[in-house]
Each structure stands twice: as C-alpha cells, then as structure tokens.
Amino acid sequence: MNGRFFSLTVWALLSSLALPTAGAAEQNGDPRKTWKTVAELSETEKARLDLRVDTPRDTTIPYLPAEAYPFEPPYTAEEMGYRAMEFPHIARWSHAMADVFGAITSTGFLDEGITLAYSHYIPDEYGVPGQLSMAPGDAYFRMVFFYTYPPENQGLQDLWILRRTDKEETTKLDNFIYSPNLRRVRRQPQPRRDARFPNNVQTFDDVVGRDAWEFSWRLLGTDVLHETIRFPNTRPTVTLATPDGSFNEVPSDQIKMLGDTYPHYTEDGGVSCYVVEATRKEDWLPHYRMSRLIYWFDQHSFYPLRIEQYDNDNQLRMIEVRNAYLANPALEERGYAGLFTLYYDLALDLMSYSAHDAHWVKKWAPEDRETMFEPDFMRRSWLKYPLKSQSLVYSPEKFFLRPHLDLDKFPQDRNVTIPTELAHRYRLQEEAGHLVFDSSSPLIEVKAPQ
Amino acid sequence: MHGKRGFLPVVSSVLGGLLLLAISANVSPCYGYFMDKQVDKVVNAWSRFDRFLSTFDPAGRYVRQPVERQVPALTFRGFLRQWSDIQLSGDRRIGNRQKDFRFSQMQNLLELELHYQVSPNIEITNINNFMYDSVYNWQDSAGLFAPRTSETFRAYHNFERIVRELYISYRTHNLDVVLGKQQIAWGKMDGQFIDVINGMDRRESVQLEASDYEWRRLPAWMANVTYFFGANSLNFLWIPNFEQDRNPVPGSPWYSPLASPRDTETKAILDGRQDATGDQFRETKRPSTGDFGDHQYGLRLDVSMEPLTWGLIYYYAWNKNPTSFIVDRDIDAAGDPYLIFQPRFTRLHHLGITADYASALSNMPLVGELPIVLRVEGLWTKDVPFADFDHQDRARDGYLNSGIIRRDTLRAAIALEFAFPGNTSAIIQPSLLYTFDWRRNLGGGFGGGIGDEMSLLPVMFIGRPFRFTRDRLRLELTVVPVISLPQKKWQGIKTKFVSSYRFSQFITGRLIYTAFSSGDRTDLYGQYNKWDNIGWELSYEF
pTM for this structure? Predict the structure, then answer.
C-alpha cells in the first residue's frame, strides 16, 4: 500500500518534471499537452497522412510498398519508417569523422574513447535506394574505425562491411578487427544484433540501423519536441571540430535539435514530430530482445529525434535521443546527420553517448576505395586522414543529463515503470541541473512514506 | 622464505577485497537512503573514489600530453605492469628440481612506445621495454639461480632486450616498406601454428599464453615489404638477423623437472666445484648475419574472397632451437663411452595455409541467430631433425653416426568461434601436431607430436563480461587437454581461469588461476602438476 502510494508520488513528481513548454502546449489546445493521438488530429493534419496499415505491395519485392521511394504525401506509417532508414546512427554517405563516445554508470564511473571513422557507401545511388539496389547478401557500406583514445585502445581498428539482408541472407555484417597486441587482422563473428556493446547501452542494430521491412508500422499521433540532448549546467560550452583541424567553442544551450539551418522550427523552437510505433515481425526477427520501438520523426525529413525501445515484457528499456544538423546539404532533407546521440538504459541507469565531430563528406579517391576499406589495410596501422576532436566529456560531473521521460505522453501505448530509486536520482538531477552521484548530497530531501 | 606462511589468508584477503570491490562498485548510492548511515558513508566514499579513479591518468596528463603538445609529430604511449604468480604447492623436490620458491614471477614491466611522423608516408617507431623480475632477489631460494646463466631472466639489461622494436616505415597505397627491428605475427590462433617468424622468450614454458606473445616474441632486424593489389596482398620478408627461442634455463622457475642434472649438481658445475660428466656438448654454432647464405626469407599471399579470406605462406628459416649432432665418441676415465655433440641450427622449409570464414546460423534453439567464425591454420615443415635414441645407442657402441633423422611434420588447428547472447564468446579449437613416418625412440622436433606420433589438443574457451558490473568484470575459462597417440595417451590438462576487472579505462587488474592436472610425471603437463599457481596483473596504460 505504502509502496504504491510512494510510486504514485514519484510518478506525479516526475510528471511535473517532464512538463512541456507553454508555447507547444498552446498549439495543442491544452496548456500542458504537446502531443495528440490520431483521433485528436485535425483534418488538415490528417490530409498528409494515410492511416491504412495494409497498403499495395511492390510487385518484385513484396515487403516494399508499391509507391515509389521517397513517397509522396499522404504518408503511411510504414513509408515514414522507410524514410527514417535514411538516418541510421552513422550517416548514410561516404564520409570521415571523429566519433567520440563514452558511458557513465549511476555512480559516475566514466569511460570514454575516440575513434576515427571512415565510411564508404558503395552503391552509386545515395541513401536507402542505394541499399535496395544491391542484391540481398551484397555489401553496401564499408566502415573502418581507428581508435586513438584511450591508450589501451590506441591503434585498435575495426572494419565493418554491411550487407543487405532478407529472410534468407541474414548475415548483416562482416566484422574484422586489428589488434596491435595480436598484430594481425582477425575475422570476428558479427555482433548479435540485439546485444548491447560491452559497457554501453546501444546495440549493434542501434548503430547500423534497422530495416523497415522487419517491422509492422502504426501511427500513434503527433508531438512537438523541445529538447532531446540535454547538457548539464556544468558544461556551458562544447568544443566542436572542423575537418581542417580548427576548433569552435559553442554554447551548449545554442545547439538546436536539427541544427541552425532547419527551416521548420515552431515559434517556440520546437520540432513537430510524427510518433510512430514499429512492432517487430516475429518471422523476420525471431528471438529478438526487443518487441517494439516508438519513434519521434520530424515531420519534414523524418529524422528520428527520439527512439524508445520496449522489451518483450513491453517495458520501456531504452531511450535514444539525438541532435542532428544538415551535414550534407547536397542531399537536402536527406542530408541530416547526428551530432550528439544519447542512449539511456532505464533498468541499469546507464547512459552512453556518441558525438560525431569533424564530419567530412568525402568522395574517396579510387586508390582509397580500393585499399582503405579492405581487411588487410588495417595491419598497416596507417592513419591516412587524421582528424582531431576535443569533445570528450572528461569529467563525470559534466556528462549529459538523463533524457526526458515524458511519462504523460501516449499513456495507452507507452508502458513506463520507473523504480523509486531511479526516480530519486532523476529528481536530484533535475534540481541540480547536472548528474548527482552522491546520496549524501544535500539535495536529497525525499522522505520515505510512513 | 617470504610468502611461504599465511598464504591462504593472503589469497582470501585478496579475493575478498576484490569481491567487495566488485559489489560495492555496483551498489547505487541511492540504496544508501534505505541503509544505515555508516553503510551510506562507505558507499558514497567508494562512489567518489570510483569516479576519481575513472579519470586518474597522471602519466597521460603530465607526461604524454605535454610531450605530444611540444612535438606534434610525436605519438607517445606506454604502460606499467606488475605481473606476479604465486605457486600453490609448498617446498619439495620434484624430479631434478629443488622447488623451494613460492613466487614464480614478480615482473615489473615498463613499456614506452614512440611514433614519429616524418611525413605523411614515413614514420619512425620505437618500442622499449624495461623489465625487472624480483623473484631472484626477493626470495631466498636454492632453486632459483638463473641469472648466473643469463641476466636477462632477472632484468633486461642490454640493447637487444630493452630496444624491442626500432623501425622506419614507408607507405604508399600499394606498397609498405618497413625496415628495422620488428616482430611479425603471422598466426591468430590460440597457440602457434603459422606464427613462426620471430623467436620466442619461452621462460614460462607451458604457461606461455597467446595473449603474452606480443611481449614474449623476440624481434629481429629485417626488411618487411608488402605489395597490395585490390583486396589481396603479397608480403616478402628478408631477415638477416637470426633470433632463436629462449627456453627456461637451469635455475629458472619453469625449467623442466625432467631435465638433468639435478639443481645441486648444476650449481656445483657453475661454481667450478664439479666437472660435467657424461656426454659433452660443444658451443652452439649459430647462423651468421654477415653471411648472405644464412639469412631467412618469407613470403605470404593473402586473398580476400568475402566472406572467405585465405592465405599461403612459405618461410625458408632456421629451426629456432639447435639440434645436437653427434660428432665424436670417446671413453672416460672409468672406461665408459660418451658422445660429443655439436649443437647447431638447421634449415627448415615451412609451408602454411590460413583461412577464415564467417557466417550466421539462423533459428537456433534458445539463441535464435548464432554468428560464427571458422578459422583454419596449418603448417607443414619439411625435413625437421629429430634425435634418434636408437642411433645414439649405436654411436655409443662405436658405429658413429649423427644421431639424427629427418621427418616432415604438420601442425594445424581449426577454430570455431561462437557469439552467444550476453556478449558471451566461446571457442572450440581442435589442434593437431603430427610427425610423418614416426617411429619409437624419437626425441622432440619442431611441429611434431609431443614425444609421440601425434598429439591432439582440443582447446576450449568461454568468456563473458558481467552486466551487473557494467561489464567491468570479465571471466574467462580456457581448458587445454593433451592426448598423444599411440604411446603416451593422456598427458594431462591445463586449466586457466581469468577474472579481469577494469578499475578504469587506464587501470586493469587480472586474477589468474592456472592448474596442470593429471597426466604422468613425464608428461607435458603432468610434470608440472605441482606448479599450479595464482597470478595477478595490475596494469596502468597511459
């Protein structure tokens, strides 16, 4: 009884912390509500949407919609899912970047690294059509990761060769590593698609993206997001690099969700999103550790700003939030790439982040294409295009805040249970404006119910 | 002797401390709210210490970073490692060994690695190792006297051992030229199959692990040229400088208890109190760097045909261990015949293959998709010299001969690696050592069965990190049984259990239990069944 009362108190407390801003609320008619279910959408809003679940199929590949990519309004939820495939964690075009990453536990144990990533998108055509132009089993993307930090990983290299999959061709990745200690390139089994990387929240599929045809899609409604990645008040600026090696000090509160050039921000700086549910198809993804995802797609480019993952008991297990920007203007609305990504595991209270710094859109020279993306190249330990980054967090106190839990949104479709202990930590964070690790902090005032 | 008494309490304390560390590292400070205040304080104190440790990198901050700022073309890194093994058996005589020591190693190793980028295509690399093993000074042991034979067992004291690698590399898209002192790893299995280029410091004998090859290989001066064409490459090695294997010497912790004479006798000979008796051995003849005909050559072709990659190797090399040829016979004062041996290195032709293939098994029970990798390595060696004890007996009887016969050998392994849920990886690696046209009364030879026609070593490995420690704790178990046929049958089993814990991304601790069980006292592992030990490694990388 007391426990239930306490949970409700915590629920109410967290709900109050997850309040949307007033401007967005006014858009929805309710002073506290930024989201709408499908039933609440206006006719104008519905005009851009095709609410059918069963739509005509492509004649040659039955798991694709019949309508030609990139689709025209009105959009089905499935078509949005296909459009969002343009935006996996790693930008879907040839480029180089410094990928800065790290994880922090609830006690503040911080682990960070930097890897220089070189990516070569193989098809002649960019984006999802390029992937679909390859036969199942064929490689469409090659990525080399050269670790430069911490010292224990310096010189370590990874080569990922991504393959298009279907029900018969299930191998998604050829994986090779070069270990300076081993001094040889060694082929590795592909990571299990649903397994988290060690000491991280994200899985292999979170990094390389999921194929829309492995899921059933349903529109839940719309929402206006005002914040995804949250910087603590202890980190007022972030140092970002350019490919030429120069650094810019950027105020962290000026980093917008979709960059400075995104033309569709609401008056109060929000981004209007479609909220779409993707449910795993058992025949495509048997024994997968996650039952469904809920995406917040920006309504114009379908960039996923927030992704929630639910386990097979339908509990919210992971929240991914992103900041992006138009990194490849030539591709227009398909040219957005992630700048910061934060993954949050609610059960472990573990967070990991990734910052894609010094992004450099590349057209690889033929000799680079032929050598740099082959397994044997790694043993040369030749860092051909060194990039630098200073966007490591360095200090546990400067780590990103836990993302908004948004407990009030879409309650009929979102099952979010927060342990009381986590609720306390979350409240401490919200009050302090940064992560709080110490239970003796004077900020702790919550009393157990009598 | 230090370390003899109170051993179990010490081990218990270490284990208990590590357990407490692992548990407390994962107790959230907010649990403290529901706990007693004292517990709360301890948890918070640990939490603060843990946070401090996670970014504790003094050498990186005060040495590496300033140096790299001053010299931007220089990359500088290194590590400091304390590496000790304590034996679980007490004092006793085992075979010819006087095993009155508890610590079999207490090594302190500092590695400094420097890379200087002369231009985008040219780089100079230098790796230095400074090692001191305090087992010989810290213990008052009659059985440990190896520095009298070779100071290298106690400390790296000369250019050869301190400057491990020093080379200049020139790279273009199609060509790599690396000139200087370096080590080359051609193998990637658990154990050495085609990894034959460099000699190895085998001071740890049967305890030498694949994970230590990096620091145990003996780099050599060579030219290493690789031509890349498409996804394939052709590698050519010219090695004027020969480095042999360095095996345990008398008075070192892992010197075989089967080797005669006894320690007391060896020390008496070293002291000049006694003359060596029995067969006589002349000074070993070594290949000459100055003689072009004595140089070694290697060739390797690697081909990528995704998802299959394969390679072929050829190595015209010297045997890494000398062979003792009978050169004369004589009669001692008592009228007994004895033989005079000339140890020398012999030429070998190695031909090898390597291949690996990746796939994923679909719809497996319980686990669904199961990614796997298949690796194969094989090495056929021609005309390996073997001591023939029948021939030696005939030589003693007056029919002088070399005491050696030559046989071809094959050593090969197939490894299957599985990626199970929870980042659990498992490897099954059946390995084979085989002597062609084998016969009884042969000694040992490169690549052949261990005292027998063939030896089978089905290596099994399983390892996984633990999520409740945020993957900071990782446990690994490796089991290596040895079966030799047709004579020796079961030769014992080696079990290695490793528990590693990441105190931070700079500091790692490992606790290692190694056991050699069963097998006869003359068998590969059986002879070391009193050498079971617990080791620990503490490593700081900067």
Answer: 0.85
Amino acid identity at A193 = R
Cβ-based burial of A411 (10 A; exposed 0-12, middle 13-18, buried ≥19): exposed
pLDDT, tens digit, for every residue of B436-482?
999 999 999 999 999 999 999 999 999 999 988 888 999 999 999 99
Among the partner residues B50, B357, B419, nearest to A108 by beta-carbon distance? B50
Distance from CA of A66 to the nearest CA of B (A): 29
Residue with tokens 């000398």: B322
Q: ∠ at Cα A240 (A239, A245), nearest 5°?
A: 110
Token couple for B375: 């690796």
Residues of B in contact with A396 (CB under 8 A): 51, 54-55
Specify the pairing of strand A290-298 against strand A271-280.
Answer: antiparallel
The whole-angstrom separation of Cα B297 and Cα B313 is 11
Over residues A411-423, mean pLDDT: 90
Relative to beta strand B280-281, strand B337-344 is: parallel
CA distance B525 to chain A (A): 26
CB A375 within 8 A of CB A159: yes
Q: Report the percentage of chain B scoring pLDDT > 70.
A: 93
ipTM of this complex > 0.90? Answer: no
Sign of CA pseudo-dihedral B129, B135, B137, B141: negative
Q: How many CB atoms are located within 10 Å of the residue A442 CB?
A: 6
Assign A321 to helix, strand or coil.
strand
Q: Which residues pair with B380 in a beta bridge?
A: B351, B410
Positive or negative torsion for Cα B271, B272, B273, B279: positive
Find the mean pLDDT for residues B184-210. Answer: 95
Q: Which of A102, A10, A106, A14 is closest to A438 using CA atoms? A: A106
| CB nearest A195 (choices: B51, B54, B421) | B421
Domains of chain A: residue spans and CATH: 2-432 (2.50.20.10)
Measured between beta carbons, the chain B residues lying within 8 angstroms of A111 are 54, 502, 504-505
In this prediction, residue A139 carries a pLDDT of: 95
Report the residue of chain B nearest A175, measured CA to CA.
Answer: B358
Percent of chain B's residues with pLDDT above 90: 79
Calpha distance A90→A338 (Å, rounded): 7
What pLDDT, on a 0 to 100 scale, did the predictor assign at position A138? 95
Q: Are A115 and A145 in contact (CB under 8 A)?
A: yes
Taking one residue from A and the other from B, the number of pairs with CB-CB distance under 8 angstroms is 200
**A108:B54 CB<8 A:** yes
Taking only the tens place, the pLDDT of each residue in B31-63 is 544 556 677 788 888 889 999 999 999 999 899
Answer whether A192 sits within 8 Å of B359, measured CB to CB: no
Q: Helices H, strands E: what count in chain B?
A: 9, 25
Identify all chain B residues contacting A383, using CB atoms and an 8 Å cutoff: none
- Measure A388 CA to nearest chain B CA, in Å: 12
With a cut of 50, say whether residue B213 has pLDDT above it.
Answer: yes
| Cβ B78 vs Cβ B114: under 8 Å | no
Joined tokens for residue B215? 């620091």
Half-sphere exposure of A89 (CA within 13 A, CB side): 24
Sequence spans of domains, chain B: 1-54, 67-420+439-451+534-541
DSSP B201: B
B386 - beta bridge partners? B405
Q: B269-282, pLDDT tens digit by residue? A: 988 888 777 899 99
Residues in A closer than 8 angstroms to B308, CB to CB, are none
pLDDT tens digits for B130-160? 999 999 999 999 999 999 999 999 999 999 9
Q: What residues of chain A lie within 8 A of the CB of B366, using their CB?
A: 287
- Using an 8 Å Cβ cutoff, are A296 and A223 in contact? yes
Query: At B57, which amino acid appears?
Result: D
Q: Over 80: is that where the pLDDT of A412 sits?
A: yes
pLDDT of B395 over the 50 cut: yes
